[in-house]
Write a structure and sequence with these properties.
This is Transporter. It comes from Streptomyces kunmingensis. The chain is an all-alpha fold. The chain has a domain at about 1-35. The chain contains 3 helices and no strands. The longest helix is centred in the N-terminal third of the chain and has 20 residues, at about 1-20.
Length: about 60
């Protein structure tokens, strides 16, 4: 649960930065949000979730 909240917060910060710099318009952000909601309801959602968990596990195992 904490991993998904962290990813959501990170993506939210990145989206706000893009919106403030003019690199992304509000309409583009809304389309991305709608795409995320639609993807969450498909059969691809578990695969995406597993991929994110695997990537997080890989990153957390790296030594600085």
């Amino acid at each position: 649960m904490s991993l998904s909240i962290s990813i959501v917060l990170l993506l939210l910060v990145v989206a706000v930065i893009f919106l403030r710099n003019g690199a992304m318009k509000l309409s583009h952000a809304l389309v991305c949000v709608l795409l995320g909601f639609l993807l969450a309801g498909t059969t691809v959602a578990p695969t995406i979730h597993d991929g994110i968990n695997a990537t997080a596990g890989l990153v957390s195992s790296l030594q600085p």
